[in-house]
């Protein structure tokens, strides 16, 4: 059995703090991970931007100005205690100093990521160093898949997922090996309402036509590792259940927020129904709907 992990899962280690606890057990099962050169290249292309976006998001949360509301300064200046004003100025100065120091730390971290010297990159290289190199025949098969619009892959993107999938199929065929696919990409699977992941019908058809053992599909790494511990490696050390759940929810939160914020037509999304923890969002122009956590924002 091999785990085929999509690039978007690896990139979570650079973007989602809660997922960091999964890095150690992933490396522990690295002998069971199947990785392609295309996946490695995709991670390298995007990891710096993902990390930088996270840093920028965090820095924006640090308010260094702390201005008083206009109504307060206009109507109640006489009531403002001098000590309050002094404390506000001291706090603003301290926050500004902290922000500058954090910016320097983040810049150094980004330089390490760019050089593949950060902790995550160093650990992932234990997996990436075994990446499969694609053949000319696999490139031709991937281009043919792209031409006919067959999954995985998106029509507007260059050939990428198509090559990796062709390599996965060939490896599974040659070794009579079942593959566990871990991806957040809808080209690989559908996430059902009960949170189970159902493989794309076209991909399952291919797998069975080639006589390959049935694949399994997972939309998050936590669930895949838990199943791995249950069925393959019982001595695998995993984080506590609360941390596994937090990692899963954090991945889902990011994915749903991206869906909400990126309507394919770049239209305006609006909440149309509140549903407890989740809200239902709909594009006011094209009508597409998404579900997201109620504290997600949308623009």
Q: How would you characterize this protein structure?
A:
There is one protein chain. The protein has 299 residues and is an alpha/beta fold. It has a domain at 241-293. Helix content is 51%, strand content 12%. It has helices at residues 7-11, 23-28, 37-60, 70-75, 82-114, 119-128, 136-148, 161-175, 201-209, 221-231, 241-261, and strands at 2-5, 33-34, 179-182, 189-191, 197-199, 216-218, 269-275, 278-283, 289-293. The strands form three sheets. A four-stranded parallel beta sheet has the order 2-1-3-6. Strands 7-8-9 form a three-stranded antiparallel beta sheet, with helices on one face. The protein has a two-stranded antiparallel sheet with strand order 4-5. The protein is elongated. Mean pLDDT is 83; it is low at 293-299.
Question: What labels describe this entry?
Answer:
alpha/beta
**Biggest sheet architecture:** 4 strands, parallel
Poorly predicted regions: 293-299
How much strand?
5-15%
The global form is elongated
Structural class: alpha/beta
On the 0-100 scale, what is the average pLDDT?
Answer: 83
- Count every beta strand, where a strand is a DSSP E run of 2 or more residues: 9
- Radius of gyration, Cα only, in angstroms? 23 Å
Strand order of the largest sheet: 2-1-3-6
**What is the share of helical residues?**
40-55%
Task: Spell out the helices and strands N to C.
Answer: EHHEHHHHHHEEEHEHHEEE
Number of alpha- plus pi-helical segments? 11
End-to-end CA span:
43 Å
Question: In terms of quaternary structure, what is this?
Answer: single chain
